[in-house]
């Protein structure tokens, strides 16, 4: 499952990276970067979709990327600080790395610019790279938060997932109806990211289906195709202590631009249907949310809360 070019993951271990660079947890999708992540105005500015797909730290990058300028066309000095992600690193059986402790670490803007130049993306202005990296880190943090939500529901089995999904998406970690003690798995049960791969040239079956539906019913399903796709391979640990690999697919959609000029993205994150268990998980979460909303669950809960005041 590794990239055929033999390149190294864009993430690295947390060795020698200051803990002060730890980013905050991102909210659930849709994801709107905060104002510091706004790309500077320039005549050569590429589209947000292109820069996310080309610069995303979840793509593989050369293992020998330096923290110094490599291109004479670089017109601005870029930061070399690297952020520690909130994503725990798992032991990938396909990797030769001996140390798999700590969290994954995002590349610095200078490393990302060097990678862009090597990949032939020479039209990206150097003074926009730091803002782009902030956007990508933000998106990845939000994507991981959604993976953790899936694992919170289903890592303990389908019956547990059925019960945890009783209140639809209102019962998610980001919803208002979940008790604080239920928001996190035990530390020993937390999922870990084993590896990842960009697959922008392979549209997911769901995305293909939505595009086909949009041709027939544009008012209900019309919209742009995802501009990027990633597959994340995570370690799921059951309460009994056993671990197995689970693949997640992520579709990246552009949702336009806010009035302030900030791009907005939608991420569709779900377990890949590699077997009947994943199919059941997706069906349970979708049907439970549909029933909860159709039966007026949110309104009933809000009314009960008001009566208890």
Describe this structure in words.
The chain has helices spanning 48-55, 109-118, 129-154, 158-164, 205-216, 218-221, 276-294, 297-307; strands at 8-9, 60-61, 84-88, 103-105, 192-198, 228-237, 243-257, 263-271. The protein has 309 residues and is of the alpha+beta class. The strands form 3 sheets. It has a 4-stranded antiparallel beta sheet. A two-stranded antiparallel ribbon has the order 1-2. The protein has a two-stranded antiparallel sheet with strand order 3-4. α2 (109-118) crosses α3. The longest helix has 26 residues, at 129-154. The protein is globular and about 65 Å long. 34% of the residues are buried.
Put the structure in a nutshell.
With 309 residues, the chain is α+β, with helices and mostly antiparallel strands. It has helices spanning 48-55, 109-118, 129-154, 158-164, 205-216, 218-221, 276-294, 297-307, and strands spanning 8-9, 60-61, 84-88, 103-105, 192-198, 228-237, 243-257, 263-271.
Q: What structural category arises from helix and sheet content?
A: alpha+beta
End-to-end gap:
54 Å
Q: Strand-residue fraction? A: 15-25%
Overall 3D geometry?
A: globular
Average of the residue pLDDT scores: 75
Biggest sheet: strand arrangement? 5-6-7-8
Instruction: Give the number of DSSP strands.
Output: 8
Radius of gyration: 20 Å
Summary tags:
309 residues, alpha+beta, 4-stranded antiparallel β-sheet, two-stranded antiparallel sheet, 8 helices, globular
Give the secondary structure arrangement, pairings included:
Layout: E1 8-9, H1 48-55, E2 60-61, E3 84-88, E4 103-105, H2 109-118, H3 129-154, H4 158-164, E5 192-198, H5 205-216, H6 218-221, E6 228-237, E7 243-257, E8 263-271, H7 276-294, H8 297-307
Antiparallel strand pairs: 1-2, 3-4, 5-6, 6-7, 7-8
Helix pairs in contact: 2-3
